[in-house]
Specification:
By secondary structure, the chain is an alpha+beta fold. Helix content is 33%, strand content 28%. The strands form four sheets. A ten-stranded mixed sheet has the order 1-2-3-7-8-11-14-15-16-18. Strands 4-6-5 form a three-stranded antiparallel sheet, with helices on one face. A three-stranded antiparallel sheet has the order 9-10-17, with no helix packed on it. The N terminus is likely disordered. Bound molecules: adenosine-5'-diphosphate and magnesium ion.
Length: 335
């Protein structure tokens, strides 16, 4: 009996992710949600409660927003062509359409039929023929998504249209996780939702957080960004892709032609106070490519900084990003 109690005690100690670091309590939750690995870390007296609350909120959002989950609101919207949505889902569809219009359609939340066609949903990858792509593209016109703010209803005007919030949901979830956590007594936190990073407060030693941006090539890092209270979100074609006949096809699609975006970029990182914006823009700027992205940055009033890695390995970033990053690459700054 004693042995069993001891075993249970040991298991509990291992499962409890709470520890002391730099004189502060530390709590960590590593889990899988929104089809990616996530890690939430907090420091302070209420670190464990903060981390638990963040995880709960993220899982709640996943169950509403995941187009592949038969019980989600977005799945219901896609299968019925109309739905009354919760505050969260309605807000995120609204934001997705707003950023779609700001980016001149480079961000498009209606590409689900195309992602399905390429096999990115069921992971039965294939290269579709031109006619299939043209047909799927006809279902991607965001003008055919009708919102009614008062009733929180969304209507898809064309049969077969399907919404996909995969390019923005993790940003929204990171913002919500940060909001929930800031209601607890913590000194700092770092939230990493599969490349959507959000920092809160400071590290236990009082210094800024160091966010390492993965190099799309090899195992190293592209750059290190020192931040606090910011979102640092990276998109690239290197995480989800398949190869066919010596060619690589990745999951970020160009809404203009229905093919994986081939804009001359390996990765895009967006730094912003706004996680949801950062997530949408990391996808959109990847679609735009270097020149369009620079033009967009110069005229946009959305409030963000960017770091681009081009196919020919040039690191290009806005002034605000250059001020807080370190990298082994030569840094080309856009004012
Ligand atoms: P990840 O989700 O891999 O971190 P992104 O934030 O760039 O990367 O989102 C990519 C996802 O967004 C795709 O898996 C797909 O669901 C969706 N998507 C693909 N192309 C676009 C696009 N042009 N605009 C908006 N969403 C897109
Ligand atoms: Mg994105």
């Amino acid at each position: 009996m004693k042995k069993i109690t001891a075993l249970i005690m040991i298991t509990i100690i291992i499962l409890c992710s709470c520890s002391i670091s730099g004189g502060e309590k530390k709590a960590v939750a590593d889990f899988f949600s929104m089809d990616t690995y996530m890690s939430v870390t907090a420091y302070g007296d209420e670190a464990q409660s903060a981390v638990d609350a963040a995880k709960k909120r993220i899982e709640e959002l996943d169950s509403l927003l995941n187009a592949e989950d038969k019980n989600s609101e977005i799945f219901r919207l896609n299968s019925d062509g109309k739905a009354v949505l919760s505050e969260d889902s309605f807000e995120l569809v609204t934001l997705a359409l707003k950023y779609s219009s700001h980016t001149d359609g480079a961000f498009n939340p209606a590409l689900h039929p195309l992602s399905e066609l390429w096999g990115f949903i069921d992971k039965k990858y294939r290269v579709p023929d031109k006619k299939e792509i043209t047909d799927a593209l006809k279902l991607s016109d965001t003008e055919n998504i009708i919102l009614n703010k008062k009733n929180k209803t969304v209507k898809l005007l064309k049969s077969g249209m399907e919404i996909d919030l995969g390019g923005i949901a993790k940003g929204y979830a990171a913002a919500e996780a940060a909001r929930v956590m800031s209601g607890y007594n913590i000194s700092g936190a770092i939230i990493n939702l599969g490349g959507n990073v959000r920092t809160l407060g400071k590290k236990p030693d009082g210094s800024l957080w160091n966010v390492a941006i993965k190099n799309p090539v090899g195992d190293g890092y592209l750059a290190n960004v020192k931040t606090t209270d910011k979102a640092v979100v990276t998109s690239g074609g290197y995480e989800r892709y398949f190869e066919k006949n010596g060619r690589t096809y990745h999951h970020i699609l160009n809404p203009d032609n229905g093919y994986p975006a081939d804009s001359g970029l390996k990765s895009v990182t967006i730094i912003s106070d706004n996680d949801t914006l950062a997530d949408a823009l990391s996808t959109a700027l990847f679609v735009m490519g270097e020149k369009k992205a620079e033009r967009f940055y110069k005229k946009s009033k959305l409030g963000f900084d960017f770091i681009l890695l081009t196919d020919d390995d040039r690191l290009i970033c806005s002034k605000g990003a250059a001020d807080i990053l370190s990298s082994d690459y030569e840094i080309n700054v856009i004012e």
